[in-house]
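Re: the request from the purification team.
They wanted to know what the chain is likely to look like in 3D before they choose a buffer screen. I agreed to run a prediction and write the result into the notebook, where they can find it.
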Amino acid sequence: MAQYQVPQFIEVEDKIFGPLTLKQFIYLAGSGGLVLLCFTLLPLFLALPLAGLAAGIGSAFAFYRVNGRPLIIAAEHAFSYLLGNKLYLWKQRESSQTEQAQTKKAAPEQSVLTVPRLSQSRLKDLSWSLNIKDQNQPQEGGARSNLEL
């Protein structure tokens, strides 16, 4: 009978470039390229803030995690929410007089459940008789009782 090895850590990405995964390397290389472009094409007073912003965003995409998931997934979900259609399932409408009249007519036709009311003395009598009955008859099978009202 042949035995097969089952992969153990399928959630962990492979480290390809030293301590970095392929995605982390791409984010850092892309932000490094933007930093290089900023310093070569722009004057120094514009290049410093833009390069810092590009390096910060690139390193955040590479290393920062939100609820155990990469930041790029949270950013993707945020953009899809902001740009996508929003579906509202419930909207309150104004009820007209005809609808109110129809509900008033339908109300008497519905069956109403009647709940029997017990007076205080009747309730005391029932509880006393149940207590006496429980003391005189041992129950079989746990907490099961055969009570009749």
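For the purification team: The mean pLDDT is 79.
Please add any questions underneath this entry.
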